[in-house]
Specification:
This protein is α+β, with helices and mostly antiparallel strands and 350 residues long. It is built from twelve helices and twelve strands. It has two domains: 232 residues, Sandwich (Jelly Rolls), CATH 2.60.120.10; 117 residues, Arc Repressor Mutant, subunit A (Orthogonal Bundle). The strands form two sheets. A seven-stranded mixed sheet has the order 1-2-4-5-12-7-10. It has a five-stranded antiparallel sheet with strand order 3-6-11-8-9. A hairpin with a 2-residue loop joins strand 4 and strand 5. The termini are far apart.
Length: 350
């Protein structure tokens, strides 16, 4: 399906966004293509530029494009979507492309994005306090759930973005998060494969085959996972950075647990969402500490309850009240856990 939309500000599909809640069945077995070109818009160059940039930020991609100064403006966005993967290209006189916390809050997803420099000049990618320089043909994996900015050295942007759900990548390359924001050299064959694959998908003249389309989602996930698996030769510095990143993320998880363990609804899924990580990655990081998410929450709750029970100032409170305040929603379960942990009942702790 090809959609060429001249002079239209409404939104059909997203580039970096794949909206939660949309039925995947609507996209199975076929491709949906969009071409949004500034030259097709009504009005002079200034109006075309303003409308193209406005639509890019408010609907198609939730990206903010900063046009190059002193050059005639041109911009083309191509989007290809099928199942739970999305491919996009941006070409034009743009000196930077950014995604803010507000954009993420408005349309939050947990996808992994492969960015490839398809232009003729170097560009840089900044995310989570790290910066990566990409020569023409090089690529990098980034997180959709974190702010980022792409800067083009000469204002002539050529960018490919391929995305899929984080879990699909994790199934193929466990621990890939440690290789985010690591450049993959333009000399690596995987980048040529990505460009070729995207070129076929984005070609509006390419005939669709339902039999072929059912494999596209897996192919894209395979390409992203393969990129992660070969992301730059591992050096001592890389290992230090990876260990440092894991340590920072582990501490962030532990802080969330310590500040929220009294909430009966706290979960690894909830903490993962708040931190922009996958639940599986949260569990992997905590496994490295020797204590699982549920074990850590339970221990903190029991210690809180034991401390409250031992204080004379809480003698007027019922055991059930202290259990609830400590994060337990089931008093019988609290009693069993307390006895198992401390060797006596909550009542005898007073």
């Amino acid at each position: 399906m090809l959609l060429v939309i001249p002079g239209m500000g409404s939104v059909a599909f997203d580039f970096f966004e794949m909206r939660a809640g949309e039925p995947l069945a609507a996209y199975e077995g076929c491709l949906h293509r969009i071409i949004y070109n500034s030259s097709d818009l009504i009005g002079g160059e200034q109006i075309q530029k303003e409308q193209w940039i406005s639509t890019l930020s408010s609907g198609y991609a939730r990206l903010h494009a900063d046009p190059a100064i002193g050059r005639s403006f041109e911009g083309e966005l191509r989007i290809v979507r099928t199942c739970d993967v999305s491919v996009g290209t941006i070409h034009g006189t743009v000196k930077s492309i950014s995604r803010t916390t507000e954009d993420i809050a408005a349309e939050s997803t947990n996808n992994v994005v492969l960015l490839l420099n398809a232009g003729h000049s170097p560009l840089s990618v900044d995310q989570s306090g790290r910066s990566v320089d990409l020569s023409p043909g090089a690529s990098v994996l980034v997180e959709q759930s974190a702010p980022s900015i792409i800067r083009v050295s000469d204002g002539q942007c050529g960018l490919i973005a391929v995305q899929t759900d984080r879990e699909r990548v994790h199934q193929r390359c466990a621990g890939f998060e440690d290789r985010l924001m690591t450049a993959v050299s333009s000399s690596m064959m995987i980048n040529a494969l990505v460009r070729a694959y995207v070129g076929v998908l984005a070609d509006e003249n390419e005939a669709e085959s339902q039999l072929a389309m059912q494999f596209v989602a897996d192919h894209i996930a395979d390409l992203i996972a393969a990129t992660a698996s070969i992301a730059a030769p591992v050096t001592a510095h890389d290992n230090a950075d990876a260990r440092g990143l894991r340590a920072v993320r582990t501490q962030a998880i532990l802080t969330k647990i310590r500040s929220g363990f009294t909430d009966p609804e706290i979960s690894a899924q909830g903490v993962a969402k708040e931190l922009g990580l996958s639940p599986r990655y949260v569990h992997d990081l905590l496994q490295g500490t020797g204590i699982s998410f549920s074990e850590r929450v339970l221990e903190l709750r029991l210690q809180r309850a034991n401390k409250m029970l031992s204080h004379r100032q809480n003698d007027g409170m019922r055991v059930s009240e202290i259990a609830m305040i400590s994060g337990f929603s089931d008093v019988s379960y609290f009693n069993r856990c307390f006895r198992r942990r401390f060797g006596h009942t909550p009542t005898s702790a007073r």
